[in-house]
Design brief:
This protein is α/β, with parallel strands linked by helices. The chain contains 13 helices and 9 strands. A 9-stranded mixed sheet has the order 1-2-3-5-4-6-7-8-9, with helices on both faces. The longest helix has 22 residues. The structure holds alpha-D-glucopyranuronic acid (GCU).
Length: 443
């Protein structure tokens, strides 16, 4: 238990440390600029008022619903029905339907990646053989410099770390995490349960990589005219169907994979992606759009990730559309907290999981008692379960149940779900994900 609390604290610390980089004054001005950008997007959309989201504080009078008996019935759009109303019957037809679904996500939810993004030049800035705990590892630090000759006011330099076993004689599977590279500072040793996620991967003979999201695109609305979104727009405001930060972070993962293709230590046919919370959302979006990602570990992704948004429990569309979170999405998504509601969404999380099929996806959550209910564990389970028919159409295994499992019970299939005993972290599920991944990544 103590271990889990520490892991959870570390996760929170990482978020807090990132925030602590900014003084209160800087945070106030980020919030103000985000508010202004949100307002200008509302103006473009012709929206004059939005519904406020419920509170994440369970004590608050307007707390988000956490009572299962208060979830009203909702009706989900079917991934296997074309926009025309025709049913998808074959894997061949699914390919066309998948294109339709991607188009809806592009236009309404995550936004479109512009066509003319400048090239990225990856360079290794350091490389050393060292020890992580007692495991020999080769660590490369890289920078992905985006050509900004079209708009020199904005510079984008992505940071990537790659760690591979020193004694690997051939290219190895690599799990790419959206996160921050803490180096060895928080590494633990001892029995295998206590190994860090990096050590667990290295011990298996696999590698890890860490891509720092905010070096691609800032995690706020204030930064939307900078980062890769701002560079592609030459410093102008977004249009309503332009990409948001999640899609931009996912783009960064694709660029990291471009680099992996040139690295003989990495087996590009065996790349996984992992992320937690907002980066869990980003990991799922990356997998949905990037076919070179072979497997996904999607942690506590909640609303905007694997959670069914039609379900009124925990975080809601209204929260995502607020000036604190809208930058993750296309401007168009804000409509669903104004003139439209979550019931009008033409796609939901199960569509997002479905467009990852047939590739394996492991959906992870913490315990409701420790993590809280904001992420809506059951909603994330349903995001995977409702994608089942698509997996089956493609000859893969669904979860084969709609029954929410007991904590610490793996619902296994090519789309899988496990709620661990800890809080807002992926740590307790790492050994379970690795075991799941062995089936696919071990040769
Ligand atoms: C907030 C937000 C979530 C997000 C989380 C995080 O709680 O509402 O959607 O996942 O932050 O990234 O930590």
């Amino acid at each position: 238990m103590l271990k889990l609390i520490i892991a959870s604290l570390l996760m929170r610390m990482s978020v807090n440390l990132v925030q602590a980089q900014f003084s209160q004054q800087a945070r106030d001005s980020i919030n103000k600029l985000s508010y202004n950008d949100h307002q200008q997007m509302l103006g473009q959309l012709g929206i004059t008022s939005l519904r406020p989201g419920p509170s994440g504080n369970p004590q608050s009078p307007d707390a988000a619903n956490t009572d299962e008996t208060k979830v009203q019935p909702y009706f989900l759009p079917d991934p296997l029905v074309f926009n025309s109303g025709h049913r998808v019957k074959t894997p061949q037809e699914w390919k066309q339907r998948r294109t339709e679904i991607r188009e809806i996500f592009d236009r309404e939810i995550y936004g479109r990646v512009p066509e003319n993004i400048p090239a990225v030049n990856w360079r290794v800035i350091s490389e050393k053989d060292t020890l992580d705990g007692d495991i020999p590892v080769t660590i490369k630090k890289l920078e992905g410099v985006v050509d900004n000759s079209s708009y020199p006011e904005v510079e984008v330099v992505m940071q990537l770390t790659v760690g591979t076993p020193v004694d690997a004689r051939k290219s190895v599977p690599v799990i790419l995490e959206f996160g921050f590279d803490w180096g060895g500072r928080f590494s633990r040793q001892g029995n295998s349960e206590e190994l860090t996620w990096k050590q667990q991967l290295l011990q298996k003979g696999w590698g890890y990589a860490i891509l720092v999201p905010w070096t691609i695109q800032a995690d706020n609305g204030a930064g939307l005219r900078q980062g890769i979104i701002g560079l592609a727009n030459k410093g102008e405001n977004r249009k309503p169907d332009d990409w948001g930060a999640l899609r931009a972070w996912a783009w960064g993962a694709s660029k990291a994979i471009d680099y992996f293709e040139t690295d003989p230590e990495v087996d590009v046919a065996r790349i996984g992606i992992e992320g937690m919370s907002r980066y869990g959302k980003a990991a799922l979006v990356a997998m949905a759009y990037e076919p070179r990602i072979a497997i996904g570990f999607i942690g506590s992704s909640g609303a905007g990730g694997a959670k069914i948004l039609h379900r009124v429990f925990g975080e809601q569309v209204e929260n995502l559309a607020s000036s604190a979170e809208y930058h993750w999405f296309a401007g168009n998504f804000i409509k669903y907290a104004g003139p439209l509601t979550q019931e009008d969404l033409p796609v939901d999380a199960h569509h997002l999981v479905a467009i990852c099929a047939p590739r394996p996806v492991f959906i992870s959550s913490g315990s409701a008692a420790v993590e809280g209910q904001w992420v809506d564990a059951k909603g994330m389970f349903l995001g995977g379960a409702m994608a089942g028919p698509v997996y089956e159409l493609l000859g893969k295994q669904s979860m084969r149940t709609m029954h929410f499992p007991q904590q610490e019970t793996l619902v296994d299939g090519d789309v899988a779900f496990r709620q661990h005993e800890g809080g807002h972290t992926n740590t307790p599920n790492w050994p379970h994900f690795i075991k799941f991944a062995e089936r696919y990544l071990e040769r």
